[in-house]
Amino acid sequence: MDSEDRAALVGKNSNDIVAEISPMFITKDHLSSLSGTQWVDGEVINLYIKLIEQRSLQNPGMLRVHAFNSYLYEKLQEAGHASVKRWTRKCNIFKTDIILFPIHVGGTHWTLAFADTKKKVLRYCDSMGGDNPKCLSILLEYLKVILIDLKCFKLIILDRARGEAKLSTER
Description:
Blueprint lengths: L2 H7 L7 E5 L2 E4 H4 L10 H17 L6 E3 L3 H9 L18 E8 L3 E8 L4 E5 L7 H18 L3 E6 L4 E5 L3
Parallel strand pairs: 3-4
Antiparallel strand pairs: 1-2, 4-5, 5-6, 7-8
């Protein structure tokens, strides 16, 4: 954190809001997870990924991004598609170029899965070089259900082990 950022936080209570992208916000307490050896707070991840999405929408030359929050994968894992079905009710996520899925692995490590709708693939990224076939399988199934609900695409699995799938307009 640079001195300007630190100055903005001086005198703030730990629950005071220091940044907001409606309806999400970050408090001083959330930001404290960025220093020392603490685990990065999920709300920090969610706000940052939402900033990426907003930036893509405000700049016509950039790839359009849809960013899910970090709770999506957790909900899918626990209760399946029905528990998050309304999250995409008002938007067709496949009209964007990139779909981001932040994944909190074991409560200790953040990874990212993303769907590239132009190249029609789903990938899993882990800074520690890990793979997560279970995660990819859950996300592939989720995307498949959304595509079937939209009645506009068919999902073709290319290589489940590598986390690759192809979205086809074939019916």
